[in-house]
Design brief:
Length: 472
């Protein structure tokens, strides 16, 4: 494992250097702590702390991560009790439409001081002027620790750094081993047809007990597909978000192939009833209760079932199935470039940096990895961190079939997104080929406009090798 991580650290720069706007969209909904999502944050012009002497500086931190919330709450409590600068941080955990909530908060001068950043939102937040550059705060030690990971169009834009990395996420099939055994299935599926067949067998064997073969958090189709089809496609040799790296154009034909199998599971009645309105935490609760045979998700899941939804079920993680059972690519490690950022309009930027500096400390990053909340990508942390001692984590650790991929350019097409269009087809039918062609037309038109405006750069790579996306 240690040798694999050393290789990952050395190749991270190459992989992220050609990445544009990644994915993994954020969300919003429920809150934790005293603050409500629309509670006002500092709205004065950017500058130092403005609290009167002896008065606590109140910071607000927004995140859409729920898998690590208990750990983060503990860290914030410790910071609030021990920092010598009289800084108090309030945590708000959102669940759906995170980026939209941030937009609303900034438009109403109620934005938080510190924001959770991901590859899907950092570029847009920078363009909209939401984030403050942190270059002036980075001392020699910080530059040495994170220097090789400060990558253009990931956490550095126009020469300015806005965030620093922490971890990346692997993606896997999560399955209940006892349910598989009960249905007469010996091993997790390696092809999509096997997944369809296994889901049907599980449902037939367990439906009387409320057990179904498959589920995803279809309340948000993009989140559901980006944690499932994305990995299926990357292992099958295709970029997981519909972008063809060889041609520099969008091509949703492979995506349409995968969705046919999802549609078949829906038709078979193998998907948990009500999954159309299912969010990820209710899904996890159902899985922890032994009611779901399998689903696909990130390496956050072992930590979830240790802390958020403790369970005694016998479960594991495995590589996702591929289109034909053959591995022709690698499973993508995602969200490996950013973590925290500072509100450009916060009245308390220096205090926000002190909180960020605390959160980026070695012990916190090391423990974050060891607790299984994410897989460390900072080389100095990788070298000292132990593998997480968490049930199920062994199936999510980086192996020979995991690597970083160049990211698809982020564009917004006119009309329905690929997730909404394919989810509608999954439920209601239609012409999958025509849907893919329509998506190609609209996404490539949006891509052309974005290139003309200088918003994205596209460099086709005819020699791209999906089995070695890092160019090894």
């Amino acid at each position: 494992m240690r040798k694999q991580w050393m290789g990952l650290g050395l190749s991270l720069v190459l992989a992220l250097g050609i990445a544009g706007c990644g994915n993994n969209s954020g969300n919003n909904g429920s809150t934790n702590g005293a603050a409500e999502p629309d509670a006002p944050a500092g709205t004065a012009e950017a500058g130092g702390n403005t609290a009167a002497k002896g008065e606590a500086v109140q910071l607000k931190y927004w995140t859409d991560d729920r898998h690590d919330q208990e750990y983060i709450k503990g860290l914030i409590n410790t910071f609030n009790e021990t920092n010598k600068d009289n800084i108090q941080v309030e945590l708000t955990v959102l669940s759906e439409n995170y980026a939209q909530s941030v937009d609303i908060a900034f438009s109403s001068n109620q934005a938080p001081d510190v924001l959770r950043l991901k590859s899907a939102n950092t570029s847009e937040f920078v363009k909209k002027g939401y984030l403050a550059p942190i270059d002036s705060y980075l001392d020699e030690g910080m530059n040495q620790k994170f220097g090789s990971l400060m990558i253009d169009n990931v956490n550095r834009f126009d020469g300015k750094v806005y965030s620093l990395p922490n971890t990346g996420l692997t993606m896997r099939l999560v399955y209940n081993k006892d349910i598989f055994t009960k249905a007469g299935i010996q091993n997790p599926p390696v092809s999509l047809q096997e997944m369809v067949d296994d889901a049907k067998k599980i449902t037939e064997a367990g439906k009387s007990e409320g057990i179904y073969g498959f589920a995803l958090n279809f309340k948000n189709p993009k989140q559901a597909f980006d944690r499932s089809i994305r990995e299926i496609l990357s292992l099958s040799g295709y970029q997981g978000l519909g972008y063809d790296l060889k041609t520099g154009q969008f091509d949703f034909a492979p995506y349409a192939q995968v969705i046919e199998y999802f549609k078949q599971m829906y038709k078979d009645g193998s998907i948990l009833p009500g999954a159309e309105s299912l969010d990820i935490d209710p899904l996890r609760a159902q899985f922890a209760a032994g009611k779901i045979g399998m689903y696909l998700s990130f390496s956050t899941e072992p930590g979830v079932y240790k802390d958020q939804f403790p369970t005694e079920i016998n479960w594991a993680g495995a590589l996702a199935p591929t289109l034909d059972g053959q591995i022709k690519g690698t499973s993508e490690i995602v969200s490996a470039g950013t973590w925290l950022g500072i509100n450009a309009k916060s009245a308390h930027q220096e205090a926000a940096w002190k909180f960020m500096q605390y959160m980026y400390g070695d012990d916190i990053l090391k423990t974050y990895h060891e607790k299984g909340f994410g897989i460390a990508v900072v080389p100095s942390i990788v070298e000292k961190a132990q593998n997480p001692d968490i049930k199920g984590m062994e199936g999510f650790l980086v192996g020979e079939h995991d690597s970083l991929w160049p990211a698809a350019p982020g564009v917004t097409p006119e009309g329905a997104t690929y997730a909404d269009a394919f989810f509608k087809y999954m439920l209601s039918g239609g012409d999958a080929k025509a849907i893919a062609e329509d998506l190609n037309s609209r996404y490539n038109a949006a891509l052309t406009k974005a290139v003309e405006k200088g918003e994205v750069m596209v460099t086709p790579d005819p020699a791209f090798n999906p089995s070695k996306p890092q160019g090894e």
